[in-house]
Fold each of these.
Amino acid sequence: MAGADIGSLQSSILFSVLVLFIATTAYLLFIRSLPGQPNAHQRRALKLFSWFFLTEFLAYLVYCLRFIDLYLFSVVFNNMLYLCGVYLFYCGIRLRYQLEISLRVIGWIALHVLGLAAAMFWFTAVYNEIFIRLPLALGSFCIPVLITFSLIRQQQRPGNLGDRVLLLCTVAALLLIPLLYPIFGYLLKPDQQGQLMVMTLVTLTLETLCIGGLAISYIYDLIDKLRSDANTDKLTQSSNRRYFFKVAPLFQQRVGAGENISLVLLDIDHFKQLNDRYGHQAGDAVLRHFAALLRQLLSNTDLIVRYGGEEFLLVLPGYTPAQTLPLLQQFQALLRQSPLLYEGEELAVRASYGVAALHAGQDIDHCVHRADLALYQAKANGRDTVVLDSLGATS
Ligand SMILES: Nc1nc2c(ncn2[C@@H]2O[C@H](COP(=O)(O)OP(=O)(O)OP(=O)(O)O)[C@@H](O)[C@H]2O)c(=O)[nH]1
């Protein structure tokens, strides 16, 4: 192989290691910059990335070993490292989908890695023939990538960008495995040391692809979680007030286009007494129970917002205020049938309801204010009742 070719391979390897180092460091810094302590899932992902980087580092070390002429050892070790790398990618994907990495899985991986090492040792020591080693390596490397591909396909969530990036990376890895060896190996016609570098280069390129895909998907998940955390009330898992005002213009547009939308303000009755008698924890449990019952009754197109302490706001598309009555009566019945069991005691939960229609061109604050006035009236009427804003009707 020409000196210039070896030189360009060396710089490519160094470049891959550098890219990998920057990507891993950026990922670690990103995790560290998140508010609060990393959770168990993030900690496991951090460990995994450290392992990934270690294998890359070892692969680079193997590349350096050519200077002390341990060709046989380097070939075997390099292939083992590559296989470990793609299996780490597979484990990273399992962690991402919160799937267990059982001892059986680890056992199969170890068997495959050691089996490949033994075969490589045999074919290198006995035949020293790249034409036998190559199909063996290609076949072995394809197995974890194929398993990973089918795992992502099984777990794929519609519209999830992270899943799509991972699928793309595995497809690219599958295509590159049979392409890179011939391209680097045969076109450059390397000698023994050159072959070693070709192997290291292929290893690093593919692993950079895998780790890059995995890092992107993890970052996507984290951003997605941060975004949804910012819009969700932690205690009840309902949307928060911030989210309501963010999406309010969309509801106003829909009303402008002729759709009926009603707003319902609900307030749990005598919640302070509940807190005082059973404690704040019981109050929290009541709020979670109340929100869970609302989710049980309402559809995905309705919006449930925790508007204040014990106050919830429902946005019901497709409903006029009068049409919300049967729904709210159903909810009242559900509350009666489902008292909260708290430390052996049944806590009865009741609420009052104020309903107002959202009108075209009307400020959403004004609509909430009208629902609030109706709610005030419901409280004044003795609680556990529904009051409609415009009609003043009660149930
Ligand atoms: N446990 C718990 N209590 C809360 C939370 N947020 C607000 N509260 C309490 O909710 C109570 C609301 O009391 P009030 O506004 O007097 O309402 P109420 O007792 O339900 O009376 P009415 O609405 O008139 O039936 C206050 O004691 C707040 O401390 C929360 O997140 N958890």
Amino acid sequence: MQNIIEPFITSAPGKVIIFGEHSAVYGEPVIAAAVSSLRSYLLVTQASSPNVIELDFPDIKFDHKWSYTQDFFPSSATSTNGFDLEKCRKIFVKHNQGTTDLDLELEDELTQYIDTIIKNTLTEEKKQFHYYAALCFLYLYFNLCPQVSGVKFTIKSNLPVGAGLGSSASISVCLTLAMCKLGGILSGMSLSEKDKKMINKWSYIGEKCTHGTPSGIDNAVATFGGAVLFQKQVDGKNKLEVIENFPQIPMILTNTKIPKSTKKLISDVRKLCEENPKIMKGILSSMGYIAETGASILKKFDAQTSLPQLIELVRINHGLLVSIGVSHPGLEKIKLLSDTLKIGGTKLTGAGGGGCALTILLDHEEDRLKIEEFKNTLHERYGYDNFDTDLGGTGSCFIDLSKKNGGEILNAFTENSAGDQIFTPELLQLLQLNTIL
Ligand SMILES: Nc1ncnc2c1ncn2[C@@H]1O[C@H](COP(=O)(O)OP(=O)(O)O)[C@@H](O)[C@H]1O
Ligand SMILES: C[C@@](O)(CCOP(=O)(O)O)CC(=O)O
Ligand SMILES: [Mg+2]
């Protein structure tokens, strides 16, 4: 008997890495903050038929329907060429125990099985975005709720995709939250710290589908929100310190809209480490020390003295990122302009290679006009977008649709337009009011 799915929404923020991108992958400290007004939302509703699993991802122009009994668990499949619920359960238990001695054979079998499903069903040419979205979705689905069918997953986000603001992690967290609820792993909709630790672990697994070897900072910030000092550990017991009372540093986020591949950028840096281990060791540890120094300044923030110190660290961190080849001429234009106007310091944020840059401002009263000139020049000369947004705020959460205005939210999400068009100030306010903390 197909159980009726009551619609619900999950949500998670994007992030800005202040210091420590790329070195984070090698276990160096990294500091990042949630971007409270740029978030992804996942609406879960009844699908058109009980035997269908449906995706509707308009932000990346991707929608797809799978047949549960034909594409996922064909009755004709034997335990050798198919994948059954028992095998899914085994992998889930291993991951959930956090044991590193995963049954790699079974793991590979699932990855192969998912790859076959994608190859057989995504008939259009496999766009990178579509492939990774399907891979992340299916890997989490087969682990967290493989027994569930007749469900539609609709994603709407005002986070620019692939721009270095952690959109992949916010999606992975939204999917993890939803599938843990559908799979009965989460009972309620207000999340305990224990729930968030479990969400963080599974969304990291989802991030690995998109990034290959992510550090875990993106999904940590998307899960916990606020601002965190994070350090990946070899044994998987990562260090995560939430930075209380994170200051609202005066900053401008600029999106070059230059597409980049996080996975490729991470792999290029890895090649550099293999070819020049001694040089890279020095550079990566300096980046880690910058993140530690930045964290201690932000914990005892005083605008007068702290901003120039942070801007100095921004300058050095960016220079080191340029030296490992992850900047881009389009990003350098932003840095050059902020240096020329002497309004503060600019560094790339996220994987680089395009995407976003972060400019920390000196915030001098006399700079107001120059800051407007900075934003207008970037927009008019290069077509870049600027974001004015606060840092910190709510992490992963459910949105309550049972309240009286839940229907209004539902209607907005069932439109076929992409995320950024539906997020009116009124809808954003409704979503905030209905957030279950
Ligand atoms: N709004 C969205 N809808 C569907 N998939 C998304 C969305 N935003 C991001 N993604 C997924 O995340 C991937 C982009 O991740 P990545 O390259 O790491 O960029 P970012 O810097 O934003 O994290 C896309 O390929 C897609 O799979
Ligand atoms: C490059 C890296 O440090 C951050 C990637 O950020 P994004 O996917 O570009 O938003 C990788 C990681 O830490 O997982
Ligand atoms: Mg990413």
